[in-house]
UniProtKB/TrEMBL annotation:
Top-level taxon: Eukaryota
Organism of derivation: Zasmidium cellare ATCC 36951
Name this polypeptide is given: Uncharacterized protein
Biased composition (Polar residues): 14-23
One Pfam family linked to the record: adh_short_C2
GO MF term set: oxidoreductase activity, acting on CH-OH group of donors
Family statement: Belongs to the short-chain dehydrogenases/reductases (SDR) family.
Record-linked InterPro entries: NAD(P)-bd_dom_sf, Sc_DH/Rdtase_CS, SDR_fam
Sorted UniProt keywords: NADP, Oxidoreductase
Gene3D superfamilies: NAD(P)-binding Rossmann-like Domain
Segments for region (Disordered): 1-34
Length: 298
């Protein structure tokens, strides 16, 4: 079956499986949906594009798999080229993303790197501007998480690693990209429902996601008057390589939402398309709660 198609019905739970972080979409069982979205008959249909991002240029971190891959593919369907950054171990997944983007007639530049290093964030932006010619959309999307039940189990090293991976690069990438961005361009940050529900077994990750929400609000207040909108998505459970590479059997068994199923990466990517396009022209500093129906405050 094509890597683009989900291999299960909308209500099906993922099978229990384990991968080593950062995981591989090629090995995910079942394969998640990249470009298919729910249809009124309860099945899936290919996402219908409408030229919403024609000739836009996007820098997407963690673009090799999961939500990042779906976003690159839906962006391509909407007419945008992408530059994707990802960990070097993800080369195979990244090449599949590139092939899918090219299938829709757009360009996809690949850049393996570790964004934990500040200097690499600078190089990513410089290379993206060189290859794409511009950055109209910055999707800060990559992340690290690892389950631990109690604060006593979180080493000082893990705490710092999670912050160094999840929030500091969002600041560096935005700082370096913004001088290249102009009125009408957008930044979208990937947060998580966990920032709102305070998930106890992902304390470090959850804390970085709270920081991302506040970073989104403050940065929006700096740039909204200049015509650059900054927003976030806060997904609930989504079937991606992050899950089997960081979560326990029990957590995978309970990996669901009030909708009775986890989300598909494509169902988050539609929200990113919305925030990147002028369909969301009145929205800045906000978070879209694409979380399967969890009611949250804020
Ligand atoms: N899957 C979920 O249930 C879920 C829920 C809420 C939020 N999110 C968020 O969605 C975003 C995308 O994750 P995903 O679920 O699509 O998983 P994923 O595993 O497909 O993507 C995560 C990506 O982050 C990249 N990455 C991690 N550390 C990096 C580093 N140091 N340098 C460069 N790249 C790095 C990896 O290469 C990988 O591509 C993350 O921010 C995650 O927190 C996911």
């Amino acid at each position: 079956m094509s890597a683009e198609k989900p291999q299960f019905d909308i209500g099906h739970q993922p099978n229990i499986q384990h991968q080593t972080f950062p995981g591989s979409q090629a090995d995910l069982d079942p394969a998640p949906s990249v470009a298919h979205v729910p249809s009124p008959d309860g099945g899936y249909k290919l996402y219908q594009a409408a030229g919403k991002l024609k000739d836009k240029k996007a820098l997407i971190t963690g673009g090799d798999s999961g939500i990042g891959r779906s976003t690159a593919v839906l962006f391509a369907m909407e007419g945008a080229d992408s530059f994707i950054a990802y960990l070097p171990e993800e080369q195979k997944d990244a090449e599949e993303t590139k092939a899918l983007v090219e299938k829709y007639g757009r360009k996809c530049f690949l850049y393996p790197t570790n964004l934990k290093e500040q200097g690499n964030c600078k190089k990513v932006v410089e290379e993206a501007v060189k290859q794409l010619g511009a950055i109209n959309v910055l999707f800060n999307n990559h992340a690290y998480q690892m389950m631990t039940q109690d604060i006593s189990e979180i080493s000082e090293e893990q705490w710092l690693h999670t912050f160094d991976t999840n929030i500091h690069p969002f600041f560096f990438l935005s700082k370096y990209a913004l001088p290249h961005m102009k009125k009408g361009d957008t930044i979208i940050n990937n947060a998580s429902v966990n920032a709102y529900i305070g998930r106890p077994d992902l304390l470090d990750y959850t804390s970085t996601k709270g920081a991302i929400v506040s970073f989104t609000r403050g940065l929006s207040n700096q740039f909204v008057g200049k015509g650059i909108r900054v927003n976030a998505v806060a997904p609930g459970p989504v079937w991606t390589p992050l899950i089997p590479s960081t979560m326990t059997d029990e957590a995978i068994k309970q990996f669901t939402s009030p909708m009775g199923r986890p989300g598909q990466p494509s169902e988050i990517a539609t929200c990113v398309v919305f925030l990147a396009s002028t369909d969301s022209s009145q929205i800045s500093g906000q978070t879209i709660h694409c979380n399967g129906g969890v009611i949250v405050n804020g």
